[in-house]
Write a structure and sequence with these properties.
Layout (H helix, E strand, L loop, with lengths): L1 E5 L5 E7 L2 E8 L5 H14 L10 E7 L3 H18 L2 E6 H15 L6 E8 L2 E10 L2 E12 H9 L8 E4 L4 H4 L4 E3 L5 H9 L20
Helix pairs in contact: 1-2, 3-6
């Protein structure tokens, strides 16, 4: 049983899978109360499927980039819960989880599309990446980066017009929207993306996971 946890996008997002079967997901706006609400939200969510935290063998949590406080909340909770129930943890890049559902849809439809997940980072910058998928394998034209919006516009514009990435994210800067092949906001099914991406990543001991901020707070 795998529990997905995400707080990196200023929400509390949870998902549950049994093997490769995704049982359900939940996403809610917790405002500044993520740390307060996450434990009870997880317990209540699991109870909908007749489970408790003791049934969880793997916790998949977004490691960042994203919003600093949310990353810390999610990572700390995942590590503490895993220690208490004897589970392993897999840290999933936030941007990869955002892109995963779209990449699966495009590949299933036979569309050789790339996806650029975007999270605002302030200071006229974004957290962004560019992913593609073929034969079930993910490739990255740009790994998770903290990059000036103008520089990322140049990255997108370097693609041939018919191969420019589809953009997905929350509050995508307007100047970027005109550069991509299309725009999908908000990103679809974050918990499912976490659960799907986690299958290709190596689980770790809770003490070994580390947040990925890409830049320091401030």
């Amino acid at each position: 049983m795998t529990l997905a946890v995400d707080c990196a996008l200023r929400r509390v997002a949870l998902g549950l899978s049994d093997g490769e079967k995704i049982l359900g997901e939940l996403s809610c706006d917790a405002g500044t109360r993520q740390a307060e609400l996450l434990p009870s939200a997880s317990a209540n969510f699991l109870s909908l499927f007749g489970h408790t935290v003791r049934d969880v063998g793997l916790i998949a949590v977004t490691e960042g980039p994203g919003y600093f406080t949310g990353i810390r909340v999610g990572m700390s909770y995942a590590a503490a819960l895993a220690e208490s129930v004897g589970a392993l943890v897999v840290a999933v890049p936030t941007l990869l989880a955002m892109a995963y559902p779209l990449l699966g849809v495009f590949e299933s439809a036979g569309l050789p599309m790339t996806v650029a997940p975007i999270v605002p980072a302030g200071r006229e910058s974004v957290y962004a990446a560019v992913y593609g998928r073929a034969g079930g394998k993910i490739t990255a034209s740009l790994e998770s980066s903290y990059i000036r919006t103008s520089d990322f516009m140049n990255v997108i514009s370097a693609f041939d017009a018919e191969r420019r990435p589809v953009l997905t994210g929350v509050a995508i800067p307007e100047e970027l929207k005109s550069c991509g092949r299309g725009t999908i906001t908000p990103p679809p099914s974050m918990p499912s993306g976490i659960l799907e991406a986690a299958r290709s990543l190596v689980p770790a001991d809770p003490a070994e996971i580390r947040a990925v901020y890409l830049r320091e707070p401030g």
